Amino acid sequence: MSFEPRILGFLCNWCSYAGADLAGVSRIQYPPNMRVIRVMCSGRVDPQFIFEALQQGLDGVYVMGCHIGDCHYLEGNHEAIKKFNMVIKFLSIVNLENRVRLDWVSASEGVRFSELVSEFIQDIKNIGPSPLRRDCPDKRLMEKLKAIERAAASDRIRALVGRERKITEQENVYGEKVSQEIYDELLNTAIHDEYIRSRILILLEKEPKSVKDIAAEIEIDPNKVLENILVLKGRAQVDMSEIVDITPIYVRT
Ligand code: FES
Predict the structure, then answer these.
(1) Ligand 1: which atom is nearest the Cα of residue 76?
(2) Virtual torsion, Cα 48, 51, 56, 61, nearest 10 deg
(3) How far is the CA of 4 from the centre of ligand 1 (A)?
(4) Is domain 154-252 in CATH 3.40.1060.10, yes or no?
(5) Which 3 state secondary structure label does DSSP give 8?
(6) Which helix (H) or strand (E) holds 144?
(7) Quick one: angle between helices 180-206 and 155-162, nearest 10?
């Protein structure tokens, strides 16, 4: 059954927004499903904005900026790519990665703007409504997305993404450079770990639990849960509250 998607667009002031404006004044037709938020640069779009929009039940999120080399702030769109890649990796965990897109549109590309938006809307129509639409949101998925939002905002992920170009393009004090391949591995591991840790924290915020109960709820190996509980204990985010029979019960500190 066809539906009318609700799309949120973050458009950079200097190129894409002007491109959208040109499409408007040139009376180029495109579906009216996208609401626009103007930002000064695509690099300004914090991943939290995207996760929040999806939690609000929007069917898709489009980020648009200036073409590479044309950013008004020189490298904002390079930063946007790094952040967006991280967002895609996180959203792949819950199969929502096809609901977000990043593209470049210049101020003179009214036709390109309308074509890209029409294409995205059609793709979202083909995928179907968001499972997080307000009338009947999938509660388990919502919980996973909240964990993703929290994990993406962690110091470890922010530091890795914020320093990606420095890490992969410049030599360290020992004259070594980290290859893109190794960096990607590091980021994938960090994303996986921080996601699991966020899920554990969210569960423990509701009530104290044993490792076995946590493992059953988030459907992972209890050894993996214990490993992450120890890390969270080290960060002073989790503590043992009591021992019931011979089972330790953990609590959010
Ligand atoms: S100003 Fe447009 S992407 Fe940076």
Answers:
(1) 4
(2) 110
(3) 29
(4) no
(5) strand
(6) helix 139-152
(7) 160
Averages of pLDDT over each 10 residues, the chain, 253 residues: 91 96 92 96 97 97 97 95 97 98 97 97 96 91 97 95 86 81 95 98 97 96 97 96 94 95
What residue segments make up the domains of the chain, in order of their start? Answer: 7-127, 154-252
- Residues whose beta carbon lies within 6 Å of some atom of ligand 1: 12, 14-15, 41-43, 65-66, 71-73, 76-77
How far does the centroid of ligand 1 lie from the alpha carbon of residue 99, in Å?
22
For the CA atoms of 132, 191, 34, 11, the dihedral, rounded to the nearest 10 degrees, stands at 160
The Cβ of residue 173 has, within 10 Å, a number of other Cβ atoms equal to 5
Query: In sequence order, what E strands does the chain have?
Result: 7-12, 34-39, 60-65, 100-104, 209-210, 238-244, 247-252
Which CATH architecture describes the domain 7-127? 3-Layer(aba) Sandwich (3.40)
Cα angle 232, 233, 234 (rounded to 5 degrees) comes to 90
